[in-house]
Design brief:
Elements (H helix, E strand, L loop, with lengths): L2 H15 L4 H6 L7 E2 L5 E5 L4 H6 L6 H12 L8 E4 L13 H18 L3 E5 L1 H7 L5 H4 L4 E5 L2 E8 L2 H6 L1 H27 L1
Parallel strand pairs: 2-3, 2-4, 4-6
Antiparallel strand pairs: 1-3, 5-6
Helix pairs in contact: 1-5
Length: 198
């Protein structure tokens, strides 16, 4: 097990030890930490696990996850090359939206995950995860636009996108989301060039 995996396992253990969101933990089957490449250049962050995710302990494996996979494929990105997680790590009952205090309770653990993985870009999926990184912004105004921020020990570039679940129910959002997705590899190339200049 490499060092990053050990550190991520420690974060999982700390969530359990510190009894984060005990009410959610009681109704959930699994703690869904995240899945993918711990050395990923791109980390995707959703809001909370749904029914399928809770049952299998993996993020984005239901209908929204399949849609996410097809968009990754279209952008020429392998799912095995990225890391996918959520702000809230337990499924809220009946798939309700996560509450502000639930997001707040899990936030420090998400920051630690990002410090460990150290991605080039963080793609927020939906407004729940975007609001934490880019407070006061409207997703309709900033989707697909890279925005640099400082977080924890890291400088991160946030790219807010609509949530795949929203695009499943709204055809016009689907086209927007596809367009934004296709930009991701270009954003990484631009960032890499900027890094070389520094």
């Amino acid at each position: 097990m490499n060092n990053k995996q050990t550190l991520l396992e420690q974060i999982r253990a700390d969530i359990i030890t510190n009894n984060i969101c005990p009410d959610l933990a009681k109704t959930a089957t699994n703690l869904v930490m995240g899945d993918g490449n711990v050395d990923a250049e791109i980390v995707f962050i959703g809001e909370a696990p749904g029914k399928n995710e809770d049952e299998q302990g993996l993020p984005f494996i239901g209908a929204a996850g399949k849609f996410l996979d097809s968009m990754l494929e279209r952008a020429g990105i392998a799912r095995s090359d990225v890391y996918i997680t959520n702000i809230v790590k337990y499924r809220p009952p009946n798939n309700r939206d996560p509450l502000p205090e639930e997001k707040q309770a899990f936030w420090p653990y998400l920051v630690r995950q990002l410090d460990v993985i150290a991605p080039k870009i963080v793609v927020t999926l939906g407004r729940h995860s975007m609001e934490y990184f880019l407070p006061g912004h409207k997703i309709s105004a900033v989707h697909g636009q890279p925005t640099p921020i400082s977080l924890g020990q890291s400088r991160l570039v946030i790219v807010p996108l609509y949530h795949p679940a929203a695009a499943l129910y709204n055809g016009s959002l689907r086209a927007v989301l596809n367009e934004d997705f296709i930009k991701l590899p270009t954003i990484i190339k631009i960032l890499a060039k900027e890094e070389e200049k520094q």
